[in-house]
């Protein structure tokens, strides 16, 4: 059994026991979060419009962190224009406990 959930503007395919890094959630490590279900698959497939009624995915927040560094460079020829900037995207690591629905 698997489900497609939406969080942080992205969609993820999840199964019970799966560890996943998603966009940062405002939840403390060790707490439970519920994610809305877009599609539920098992013996039969149920597609939501936009969400499946009565279905939810329960996940436990494991940790918060920052992703690897990304370097952004800008350059214009002949005018001595150079800019360098770095970015580390924050994330939340979650563990999928169960799929209800």
Automatic annotation (TrEMBL):
It comes from the Bacteria. GO terms for cellular component: cytoplasm; ribonucleoprotein complex; ribosome. InterPro entries: bL21-like, bL21-like_sf, Ribosomal_bL21. Keywords: Ribonucleoprotein, Ribosomal protein, RNA-binding, rRNA-binding. Pfam families: Ribosomal_L21p. GO terms for biological process: translation. Coiled coil: none annotated. GO terms for molecular function: rRNA binding; structural constituent of ribosome. PANTHER family: 50S RIBOSOMAL PROTEIN L21, LARGE RIBOSOMAL SUBUNIT PROTEIN BL21M. Part of the 50S ribosomal subunit. Contacts protein L20. Belongs to the bacterial ribosomal protein bL21 family. This protein binds to 23S rRNA in the presence of protein L20. This is Large ribosomal subunit protein bL21.
């Amino acid at each position: 059994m698997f489900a497609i959930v939406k969080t942080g503007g992205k969609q993820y395919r999840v199964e019970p026991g799966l560890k996943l890094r998603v966009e940062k959630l405002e939840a403390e490590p060790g707490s439970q979060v519920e994610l809305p279900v877009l599609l539920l698959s098992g013996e039969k497939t149920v597609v939501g419009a936009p969400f499946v009624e009565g279905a939810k995915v329960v996940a436990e927040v494991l940790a918060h962190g920052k992703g690897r560094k990304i370097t952004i460079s800008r350059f214009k020829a002949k005018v001595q224009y150079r800019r360098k900037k770095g970015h580390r995207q924050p994330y939340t690591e979650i563990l999928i406990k169960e799929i209800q629905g």
